[in-house]
Amino acid sequence: MVYSMGCRQGAASSGNVPFSQAGGAADSVIFYSVVPGDRGRRGHGKGRACNVLPRGELVYNETIRKFGYPDTLLREFGHWVVLLRPKQVTLGSLVLACKGEATRLGDVGSDAFGELATVTAQLEATLQRAFEPDKFNYLLLMMVDKHVHFHVLPRYSSPREFGGTSIVDKRWPKPPVLGETLELDASQRRALAELLNQAWVGV
User: Fold this and answer.
1) Which of 17, 23, 135, 177 is the most buried (most CB within 10 A)?
2) How far is 85 from 154, CA to CA, in rounded Å?
3) Residue 69 — φ and ψ, nearest 5°?
4) Over 70: is that where the pLDDT of 27 sits?
5) Is the pLDDT of residue 69 over 70?
6) Residue 8's CB: how many other CB atoms inside 10 A?
């Protein structure tokens, strides 16, 4: 199943984001039904601009580093990081990764679950502001990269303009395929990261 949900709006914050071509991607597609924030206490974390990289007690695991952290970082929370996915499946694809060494969703803990409501609200509102997606798909796989992380894929029923190019969600309305990615060069990926960082909704 593909999980989709609506968007909420809030106040924006901005900043600049460094970005590199480093990163990785899962090869297989398995869909889980996920309801972020459905359990655990209310989130208390606040997104941090990417030019501030605080180091907490939780580790930046191998999966987070494989997807380009810290160069791909858009926002960092107490238990989660939001990364621009180096290989864009749809325009604005993100990786939402849990800090620490959990390899099962049930092991991330109530604090992380509680914070997930804040994180998903912010990232969805940001993508809505930037590109007005029709739906959001959250893919929880861990088939190749073992630590808990979601591939967050905005979905589009019609083309979106970015950098003077019309970009189509070729798989709409079917499930996405992670191996099929957009052809964006390094400058386009940097521009995408900067756009999302400037459009970020939240504090």
Assistant:
1) 17
2) 12
3) -60, 135
4) no
5) yes
6) 12
pLDDT at 15: 29
Alpha-carbon distance 92 to 74, whole Å? 12
Q: Which CATH number fits domain 1-203: 3.30.70.140, 3.40.50.80, 3.30.428.10, 3.40.50.720?
A: 3.30.428.10
pLDDT band (50, 70, 90) for residue 2: very low
Bond prior to 70 in cis (omega within 30° of 0): yes
> Cα separation of 94 and 25, whole Å?
11
CA distances from 183 to 133, 136, 165, 199 (A): 19, 21, 11, 23
As a whole number of angstroms, the distance between CA 33 and CA 188 comes to 32
CB 89 within 8 A of CB 117: no
Query: Residue 130 in 3-state DSSP?
Result: helix
Residue with tokens 């940001």: 126
In the chain, where are the structural domains located? 1-203
3-state secondary structure of 25: coil
Task: Give the pair of three-digit tokens for residue 200.
Answer: 């970020």
Say which residue, 68 or 48, is predicted with more confidence.
68
